[in-house]
Specification:
4 strands; alpha+beta; two-stranded antiparallel sheet; elongated; single chain
């Protein structure tokens, strides 16, 4: 019975982990319209810090947990500070994709209003009009 309870607890913890990662990625993609994997990188960084502190240094799990959270927060703050120093480089890394091909370059560029590079504020709903045998499309 104790093994069953251990598996049940492991299942709930792992399911919660997957839910948190999924919700984070969904929020970032829904707001920015870009897949940003930094959320997973920071989570993995915290897990590595936990492993090092608990297994290598022999610190208690419940003492190591806040240390890992603080370490992840510091890394996130450093990433944010680096992004503010060079916003053009961060924008280029997120929005401009160049792929070298045999027949030439394939370039993907996404732009939007200044400060809203996701283009979320631009409507992508169109009204199709058919009049006098001609088909027209207007942006709503």
């Amino acid at each position: 019975m104790s093994e069953f309870l251990q598996h049940l607890i492991n299942m709930l913890v792992l399911g919660g982990t997957y839910a948190l990662l999924g919700i984070g990625l969904t929020l970032i993609f829904g707001i920015m319209n870009v897949v940003n994997f930094t959320h997973g990188v920071l989570y993995t960084f915290g897990a590595y810090i936990m492993f090092i502190v608990v297994h290598q240094l022999g610190v208690n799990f419940f003492v190591a947990l806040p240390l890992a959270v603080v370490a992840g927060w510091l890394l996130g703050a450093a990433i944010e500070k680096a992004g503010k120093a060079e916003p053009a480089a961060i924008k280029a890394a997120l929005w401009d994709i160049n792929i070298k091909g045999l027949n030439g370059d394939i370039v993907f560029r996404k732009s939007g209003p200044e400060g809203k590079e996701s283009g979320q504020s631009q409507p992508n709903v169109y009204l199709i009009e058919i009049s006098d045998g001609k088909v027209g499309m207007k942006t709503l």
